[in-house]
Design brief:
This protein has helices at residues 2-7, 20-30, 36-45, 68-85, 143-151; strands spanning 49-50, 54-56, 101-107, 112-116, 125-129, 136-139, 171-172. By secondary structure, the protein is α+β, with helices and mostly antiparallel strands. It has one domain (2-172): SMI1/KNR4-like (3-Layer(aba) Sandwich). This is Knr4/Smi1-like domain-containing protein.
């Protein structure tokens, strides 16, 4: 997370970061603990996205486009519909199934970023499903490691366009 903060300046006054009680309520409703780096990311950056391209789902903003619970239902529902129609192509189960995928972000192009909920939350891998496709990529990285490596171009995610990230990535409110 410290490396990410060095290259992606957080807002001076992030909004919708949640207090301890809000986090406890959210975790209870969701039915699982979440990776600690995700929680630290939301506490540090609040609501927003990266370079107007990757939008991080947040528990505490009521905007239906980025509200974690609302958007999780929409993204997971669309995935399940695709899985029902093409079970050989969409191999993952959806959370709360054991080892199911749980969305945490999406892109302007329609790519979906998930956690693969196997093991303890801090060991969850990142799964990126390409837009309107059953093609996916799995990365043995935490959410913030993934974002950092993509932003520094240490990792090229084939689902993302060549012009992402910009030379000087920004966090957009």
């Amino acid at each position: 997370m410290e490396n990410l903060i060095r290259i992606l300046n957080p807002p001076d006054k992030p909004d919708n970061t949640g207090d301890e009680k809000s986090w406890e309520t959210f975790i209870k409703i969701l039915g699982t603990e979440l990776p600690s780096d995700y929680k630290k990311f939301i506490r540090t950056y609040g609501t927003g996205g990266i370079d107007n391209f990757i939008w991080i789902l947040t528990p505490f903003d009521q905007d239906e486009n980025i509200n974690f619970l609302r958007r999780k239902e929409e993204i997971s529902g669309a995935y399940m519909q695709s899985k029902q129609e093409f079970p050989k192509n969409f191999k993952h189960d959806v959370f709360p199934a054991s080892g199911g995928i749980l969305p945490w972000a999406f892109t302007d192009n329609g790519d979906e970023l998930y956690w693969l909920t196997e093991g303890e939350p801090d060991q969850w891998k990142v799964v990126v499903y390409e837009t309107r496709s059953s093609d996916y990529h799995i990365y043995s990285l935490t959410m913030t490691e993934f974002i950092y490596k993509v932003l520094t171009r240490e990792l090229i995610c084939d689902a993302f366009p060549e012009d992402f990230p910009s030379e000087n990535p920004i966090f957009v409110l």
